[in-house]
Design goal:
By secondary structure, this protein is mainly β. It contains no helices and 11 strands.
């Protein structure tokens, strides 16, 4: 009963920046962890960044220092600020959230970084 709407993807030059956003709507009681995953062509889906409701965030080594995850709990929204983008960041990015025993996924948004 929870829907996630993603936005912010697109085509950028190497070294550029994008900010992804994901807003949850529907039956919201208490959101737990929220995060971002990505899947590049020919590769498995991987965790990019994870944010608990409060506390320490976690990043994949490949994006640490370049990407920043944040969340606005009042708006049920999670963001991913992506700086210094590289061609290897090209992938479909998916937001993910957990509420009690349920897990929800966004539909994915394409990020393409050209050389």
């Amino acid at each position: 009963q929870v829907q996630l709407v993603e936005s912010g993807g697109g085509l950028v030059q190497a070294g550029g920046s994008l900010r992804l956003s994901c807003t949850a709507s529907g039956t919201i009681f208490s959101l737990s962890a929220m995060g971002w995953y990505r899947q590049a062509p020919g590769k498995e889906r991987e965790l990019v960044a994870l944010a608990p409701r409060v506390g320490t965030t976690n990043y994949a080594d490949a994006v640490k220092g370049r990407f920043t995850i944040s969340r606005d709990n009042a708006k049920n929204t999670v963001y991913l600020q992506m700086n210094s983008l590289k061609p290897e960041d090209t992938a479909v990015y998916y937001c993910n959230l957990r509420q009690w025993s349920s897990i929800y996924w966004g539909q994915g948004t394409q990020v393409t970084v050209s050389s």
